[in-house]
Structures are given as C-alpha cells and as structure tokens.
C-alpha cells in the first residue's frame, strides 16, 4: 500500500537547487512506484473542487517571478489521465462533494517542482486537484476521506503545501529556524500523533503562533486532505527549515 503524503513545496528553487531536502525528495520517489499521482496543490484555488481531466501532456506553469532564467527552462511533461480523473470525480460526488473538471490547465509549481525531483522521467500520469482555502478544516478532511483507499490501488495521493508559510516573515539568508515556527510545528505533530482531530480542526484558535504560521490557509489545507485520505498514524518523514520560518516538514499517513 502506498501512503498518502503531505509534502512541502516551499521555494520554486527546489527544482534546480541541490539541498538535503531535494535529496530527500529523490529518495522518496525511489520508495514508491505508483501507477498514477493525485496531487492537491495550494497554487490552484477554486470555490468548487476542480480536477484536471486530460490524457495530454501538461504545460508547465511558471506561476512566480524574479527567479533565475534556469528555473524557467525546467519542463515537466507529464500526462494526465481522464480515466483516473473520472474515478476521482465519482468517489467525490458519491460523498456529496461538488466537483468540476478542467481539460486545459497545466501543472503549477506546487506540483511540478516536487514531482520533477521525485519522478524526473515524468512518466507517471498526474491528476492535479484544486483546493478551496475557505472551507472549514473538517470539510477538507472529508474530501480526503472520500478518496481514502487509493493507496491500495497503487495511486499516490499528495497534499502539496507548507505548514509554516508566511512570506512577510521570511529572514533571507537565515538557516536556523525561528522558535515560534518550531513551536507551531511541534504542536501540530503532537496533535497529529495523538489523533486529536478536534484540536487540529481548531488549530487557528488553539495552536501557538497560528496567525504567524498560517496567515492564509491555502498552503495549510492540503495537510487535512492528505490526512483524511491516508490511514494510520501520522509519521514525520522529513523536517527542516529555510529562511528562518519556512517549514519543510513532510508527513505520511
């Protein structure tokens, strides 16, 4: 069985830099050989959950600016899968979740930067799914629950986001993490590993430094989707920080 993953996509530079984190992603990709990848990305927001539905090769979207030219040369020519998109749509609608499909959108950097490191051959079908950051955590979790069991079918589910993501509080050049960022992740891990869903759903009120860590929820909600779609206790598979406050904590379920 393939576990569900929550992976930090952090800076787009991870697509071209060589760091301990990119080495981790490469080794992670070697552990699993899925027949398809379903990825919920923080960089595709929509009011109605939207699933990419195509058999064609995706365009690579460079949804960022001000980075080296080398980054804009990276392509990730993965194909989609209409069949798996239709299966996802059926599972979600059967659980009362409204769904739309999209046949033209490419892969944003919340998807391709990670996948470029994990599966550089781009030979595994990818189904990209949007998030609605305004839904309550309980509803995000139910989206994951609706597709639970895909790992038993050889499909890798990834929630692509970041636990601590506040661009205004980055400290350029700083390699040691700020204590408040660590404290937020520590609280999160404690509640995840104890299975305290009520506390997790109320993280905005209960977690220390929640406002600093999650000023806006789009990068955080993929965690709840991955958690709902997985089975068993959460396990930390990587934890590091960059720029003082950017968390690269990754989890499997």
From TrEMBL:
Q: Which Pfam families match?
A: LigB
UniProt keywords (A-Z) are: Metal-binding, Oxidoreductase, Zinc
- Asked if the Swiss-Prot or TrEMBL record annotates the protein with the keyword Cell cycle, the reply is no
Q: Which domain of life is it from?
A: Bacteria
UniProt-listed CDD domains: 45_DOPA_Dioxygenase
Name the needed cofactors.
Zn(2+)
Which GO-annotated molecular functions does the record name? ferrous iron binding; oxidoreductase activity, acting on single donors with incorporation of molecular oxygen, incorporation of two atoms of oxygen; zinc ion binding
| Every Extradiol ring-cleavage dioxygenase class III enzyme subunit B domain range | 4-241
Among InterPro entries, the record links this protein to: Extradiol_dOase_DODA, Xdiol_dOase_suB
Q: Which family is it part of? A: Belongs to the DODA-type extradiol aromatic ring-opening dioxygenase family.
Species whose genome carries this gene:
Paenibacillus tyrfis
Give the protein name, as stated in the record.
Answer: MFS transporter
